[in-house]
Structure formats: C-alpha cells, structure tokens
Design a protein that fits this description.
There is one protein chain. The protein has eleven helices and eight strands. It has 253 residues and is an alpha/beta fold. The chain has an eight-stranded parallel barrel, surrounded by five helices. The chain is globular. The structure holds phosphoenolpyruvate. The site of phosphoenolpyruvate has 14 residues, from strand 8.
C-alpha cells in the first residue's frame, strides 16, 4: 500500500502574510486520513517561517530546488544540508520550468537528485514531455532519457527513498490536464522501467501526476492504479483548492 502524496509547488508566489493564511487554512482542514501525506514547497526565503507554522502538524515541508554541490563558493546556491537544517523533508528536482528556463540538463538534475539523497532527504524527480515531443510520438523516449540519467548515476535502489512526478509540460499551468488514461499510460511506463531493474522498488515508489490538477479532476486521476497523488501548482495557492484535491485522495485512500 503506497498511500498518496499531495504536494503543493508554490513556485515564485507568496508573502509572509499570504503564506501564513495559506498554511493555517491547510492545517485547520487537512483530511485526517493516514493514507494521505500533504506537502508544501514554498520559495527558499520562506522555508524557515513555514516550518515553524507546520510544527506539530501532519503537513511536510519541501523545497522547489537545490544545488548539486555540497558547500562552498557557489554564490546564490542552496545546499541540501541547509534544506535539511531548516526542516525540509522533500526536495523537488528537475521541474520542467527549471529544465526549460534555467538550462538544467538531465545530468544536472541527476546530480541534484543524488545530492538530496546524500543528505537524507527525499527527492521528487520531475519528468515529462513537451507537446511537440508527444505529437512526435516521443513521450516514452523523453521520459526514458530523463529517468535514465538518474538510474545511471544513482541506481534503481535510490528510488526506495525517492518520489517521481510525471508532469507533461503541455499540461502545466495550461488548464489542459492529461486524461486519467493518458497519465496512467505514462505512469505504467515509468513503473515498468523500474520493474525491469527491481520489482520491489517499482512496487514501492510513489509516482505523482502534475499538470492542472484541480478538485474536480483529481479523483479520476488518483483512481488509476499507478497514480499515487499529485504535484500541484496553481491549485496549491488557495487552501480550499488544495484541500479539495487532498480530499479526493483521502476518499480513495
Ligand atoms: C507544477 O508546477 O508542478 C504544476 C503541476 O502546475 P499546475 O498545477 O499549475 O499545472
């Protein structure tokens, strides 16, 4: 029983006041279900303050990015050990916005994934194809390349302590959700790629779907056998929207 993870990626949004209200709303009404874990990933400057607000709650803290380096002369970077120090449990790596806009290659993403593991935190590895990739019939090849870079560097056993998020780029922030069947097909492909190396690792790893998940489409997605929750962007910025997605998971879990 893998359980569900519903993770909010706040991206570059928020302020002290807005974050306080959002976190208070989530904590006050989070479904009590044991089979659903909730996670929020604020921007770096707010991690400590949000950690304080989350203390004693069942909502976990994560970051949206990390350096692949451990420490030293890397101006503007944030080490995984610092994220652990301020209370993070999870770290998103390889979000498509970072791959596309910040030049993160699959090799850099793999190095970040390993840096997170080395620190005892849990990486959430994002993979996903663009619309052009999909239309060219390249979806699985793109996923294989992104996943392959991590498997080559860290090995299949690293996924015992990791989460994967399938996020089709064409569905992120567009309102164009993948259908539950489209998502399930790719999730199955990802799990099968791991299964070929280790059945037990494949069986245990959570694979989240991300891309315009909302309260009204979450249940359809989460009811698929290989979809273990969601990575939520826009709908994670209002507690009622985020909690509606959490409720969908709790109802299924
Ligand atoms: C995301 O940024 O990871 C995401 C899935 O965004 P949205 O839910 O807004 O599509």
């Amino acid at each position: 029983m893998r359980g569900y993870l519903v993770a909010g990626n706040w991206k570059m949004n928020g302020s002290t006041a807005a974050n306080d209200a959002l976190v208070a709303g989530i904590i006050a009404n989070a479904p009590p279900s044991e089979s659903v874990e909730l996670l929020v990933c604020p921007p770096f400057p707010y991690l400590s303050a949000v950690a304080e607000k989350l203390a004693g709650s069942r909502v976990a803290l994560g970051s949206q990015n990390v350096s692949q380096f451990q420490s030293g002369a890397y101006t503007g970077e944030t080490a995984a050990s610092m994220l652990r120090d301020v209370g993070c449990k999870y770290v998103i790596v390889g979000h498509s916005e970072r791959r596309a806009m910040m030049g993160e290659t699959s090799e850099i993403v793999a190095a970040k994934f390993q840096a997170v593991l080395d620190t005892g935190l849990v990486p959430i590895l994002c993979v996903g194809e663009t619309l052009a990739d999909r239309e060219a019939g390249e979806t699985e090849a793109v996923i294989d390349e992104q996943l392959g870079a991590v498997l080559n560097l860290s090995g299949v056993d690293s996924f015992v302590n990791a989460v994967i998020a399938y996020e089709p780029v064409w569905a992120i922030g567009t309102g164009m959700t993948a259908s539950p069947e489209q998502a399930q097909d790719v999730h199955r492909h990802i799990r099968a790629a791991l299964e070929a190396r280790s059945e037990s690792v494949a069986e245990g790893v959570k694979i989240l779907y991300g891309g315009s998940v909302k309260g009204d489409n979450a249940a359809g997605l989460f009811s698929k056998p290989d979809i273990d929750g969601g990575l939520i962007g826009g709908a994670s910025l209002k507690s009622a929207d985020f909690l509606a997605i959490a409720e969908a998971a709790a109802t299924l879990g």
